[in-house]
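re: ur question from earlier - yeah i can do the single chain one, its not a big deal. heres the input i used so u can compare w yours
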Amino acid sequence: MLAAWAATNAAESSPRRVFRAGAATSNITPPLGTSLAGSFWDAKATHIHDEQLVRCLALDDGMTKLVFAMVDACLIERGVFDDAKRQVHEATGLPMENMTMAATHSHSCGTLTSVHQSEADPAYQRFAARRITDGVIRALNNLAPARIAWGCGEVPGQVFNRRWKMKPGTPLPNPFGGFDKVQTNPGSVINPGGGKSSGLAPNPNLLEPAGPTDPQVWFISVRAADGRPVALLANYSLHYVGGTRAGEISADYFGMFADRVQELLGADRLDPPFVGILSNGASGDINNIDYRKPRTIQPPYARMKAVANEVAQEVMRVEKMLTYRDWVPLGVAQKDVTLALRLPTKAEADKAREVVKGVKTYPRMVTVEEKYARETVTLAGFPPRVSAPLQVVKIGDLRVWAIPAEVFCEIGLELKRRHPASFVLALANGYHGYLPTPAQHALGGYETWRAISSCLEVDASTKIVSALEELLGK
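and the output i got, formated as tokens:
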């Protein structure tokens, strides 16, 4: 059932207080030739389809000031975010813990975190941090009296769990010599029918998805005192869409959503400019492919555009029913949680080094075995524990859970079960790989394979949810 949630608690409204908001963007597009993240193998940018931006929203209730900065990037390590936050704090005095920054997770953007075989350029990391800083400061400069509302719609037809249980007897080997109980992105069968019937047919070995989906689209909408649209920040639990041409930089459906919302609001050429924003929710195991149905092969960017349009249309449908408020209380709490890492044994690391030594295409790993041998060698030098930043942001009775990982869908659903007016902001303030539940770890699959992209302890999600509940109490 579609749901519309409006902020209606009049007790929090006060004519003696002034609520302010400001928004801005900043361009972080890297030069051509830079590394592109989002694949097992590195690629280089040869063209820019659409620019990479940081999209910022600042909120101020007169006592607490908050900033959201959503960055068109696949992954961003904590050092880049902390560098940007430090620069903002030095320039404005805004506490670093009052800034929430996250990557959108587009798989067609410049590399800002070394992962798989894509290596981050320190010069680009410094450039991106500076431009994130600029975007935040510009949003703060644009603070002006405003009204705010938030709501929730549903788009169930664009989210599918990508982890599948397969029919008994289907071999599901992993890179470490064992066998999994699920397969990520199980693939389809080529349908050679020709003409309109050509495309992809369902994999005959599919049994059932290994987890749920979350169709909700939460969003925060801000308008100036005169009714002018200022910004709209939405959140949807869809990993990314993809479908670019090789070597092309694109913000994926996140950028297309921003453009479409602006169009639907009639908010082009405003002063200051309207800023549409789409953030990534609990989508670590969610994609846009329904493997149960035949699929046609679409032109580049067509699927992105369709998803962005449907999500934007639903947001606009709900937005028309919202009641905007002159003032709401803001709050933020942040803490670091210490988590153990799943690291290789000495024997595993030694075996992996032998595999890497025998790779004829070194340093490029070609096979999955070679790639995970490289990951094992790298992880052998990691510390046994990491410190992961967690945040809870309060906007009236809405809660935002900021987690520095690719959060599995059922974790977001559990937090929403406990606190219905809330959403997860994934890949926020740092990057610590995939965050499956212990039960999903037991099933195996790509998201659990030990690598830089998946090395948190099995119980990490349980500890993170517990820590977020503690933060909420503050």
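The first strand starts at residue 20 and ends at 27. not sure if urs matches, ping me
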